[in-house]
Specification:
Elements: E1 6-11, E2 14-19, H1 30-44, E3 51-56, H2 67-72, H3 81-100, E4 105-109, E5 112-114, H4 116-123, E6 126-130, E7 134-136, H5 147-153, H6 159-168, E8 172-173, H7 174-180, E9 185-187, H8 192-204, H9 208-222, H10 226-241, H11 244-254
Parallel strand pairs: 2-3, 3-4, 4-6, 5-7, 6-9
Antiparallel strand pairs: 1-2, 7-8
InterPro entries: ClpP/crotonase-like_dom_sf (IPR029045), Enoyl-CoA_hydra/iso (IPR001753), Enoyl-CoA_hydra_C (IPR014748), Mitochondrial_ECH-domain (IPR052377)
Pfam family, one: ECH_1
Keywords: Fatty acid metabolism, Lipid metabolism, Lyase, Transit peptide
Amino acid sequence: MSDAIVRCDVTAGVARVTLNSPGNLNALSDAMLAALSAQLEALSQQNTVKAIILRGAGKVFCAGHDLKEMQAGRAAPDKGAAYFADLFARCAALMQMIPALPQPVIAEVHGIATAAGCQLVASCDMAVAAEGTRFGVNGVNIGLFCSTPMVALTRNIPRKLAFEMLTTGQFIDATRAAELGLVNRVVAAHQLESETAALAQTVAAKLGDAVKTGKQAFYAQAEMSLADAYAHAGRVMVENMLWRDTDEGISAFLEKRKPDWAQ
């Protein structure tokens, strides 16, 4: 499995999913999109997996779409129109799958995350970046506005700053990405793996059903009005309070002992 385009190993409830195509900078080729989507779908069915780390092999996290593959699509009679529409639809489905997964997904980012690679970081629930990592939606530099990466980016950082990145094609560094909210924290490069693992393990140690329910509610309420968000969140908390494991968790806290959760 070491030569698979996407690798996955699971330890102590944490799945480490690796984009394993360093030769093309882990580009989101047709094969990569299919393999990554299939891997994440498989993990969504595994109750023992409580958190997912998404990382890239080699020098970078992900350089976006495979431009050589895209150019080859122009050979079709329609000059690639159908292929491009299908490609962007498949990519959008992957990006929407990530927040819909029951487990939190943490991007472990190094090197560069550009265009659809930056979109991938923005689509994850959390992100840890190594010092020196650069982020960009730089398609405009080659005449292609990053319209689909824009969707995730504008839901992560202030609009005016997103627009500046999209129209100038300029990169931001990891420190600036953290200031804007694109990543949660920046760590020394040699600590990237351990710091990301520590965050994932902290999440994995929580009651899995609570995190799953909370993640669903988090994204649902964000699209609602203030009143509807409170009403929805209240219903979720009532349901959560009635669980056996939540009763046990609260009792254990009050009794100053470790909870005996069923899962």
